[in-house]
Amino acid sequence: MARANNYGLKTRDLAKAGAFAANRAAREGATSYASAAALGDRWQAFAAYAKGEGVRRMEHVTAQLAAAYGQGIAARVEAGELSASYGQNLVSAVNSVMRLASQGQWQSVSPTKDCGIEKRSNVRQEAPQGIERGIVATVADTLRSSGQERGAAVVELARALGLRSKEASLIDARGALRQVLSQPPDQRSVSIISGTKGGRARTIPVTSQQQIEALTRAADAQDGARSLVPPEQSWREWQEGGLRNAREALQAAGVGRIHELRAAYAAERYQQITGHLPPMLGGLASREDDRAARLTIAEELGHSRVAIMTAYIGRSA
């Protein structure tokens, strides 16, 4: 039996209850405050729909109601009013909020199977967020001004070298900088070993002063530690502390994920290699040059499949 209206969330208002559930999860460390705010905003649309159907309590929200809501969204996606990605996010928010409020006692609704929202396209069609270096510099400066030099370094390394957040966190920046500076200027590269997906080490070329500067600042932030993770912290503590703060600083600047900085690196490298903008920005490199660039960049990003490059730079020419 529920303790009170809306699973004891201390409000009788359905719209507020969703925000309360998301904020509670953020306070408990189960999600970030930025994610909680996004969930709360998306829940508002469902709450308005539910009230229109005569449902005013979370205890009365059913999977059937959520599916009907999603089917209405599917119609709007088909009409071109909403993107498939945003439509799926709206339904996923209902699942997330109800799961949080009911302490896991919720039957999730599939945005695609139950609601009929078309699958998201993995083909990038617009410029990556953070492709403007000024945005990344501003975020890094903001983090440094609040004493978060390590988080700032992770952000800059993700943009400068196309690193995943774990790779940027676990890199020995001092060792990497020594490696780079010991090489001839036209043959410089850095080895990425720790934190890689599948344990696959790789080498990334260092071709610009910005990359060296990012490594230099990271080495300074690392201080005497083995990596950018503070020596007194576990990986999980860093992930839920400094790394989360870096993500939230990016989100506040309009960069949704650190992954977007990898995509920005890929777009920049594509232009560097082919002399053309990437396809999602209208570039028209030859098939041969396009293919060669994709192979090179996929390796630099740590991917074994070249097909995944469509998510970074758009469809092949």
Automatic annotation (TrEMBL):
Keyword entries, A-Z: DNA recombination, Plasmid
A single GO molecular function term of this UniProt record: DNA binding
Record has Signal as a keyword: no
Annotated GO biological process: DNA integration; DNA recombination
InterPro entries hit by this protein: DNA_brk_join_enz, Integrase-like_cat_sf, Integrase_catalytic_putative
Annotated ranges, domain Integrase catalytic: 138-267
Name of this chain's protein: Phage integrase
Gene3D superfamilies: Intergrase catalytic core
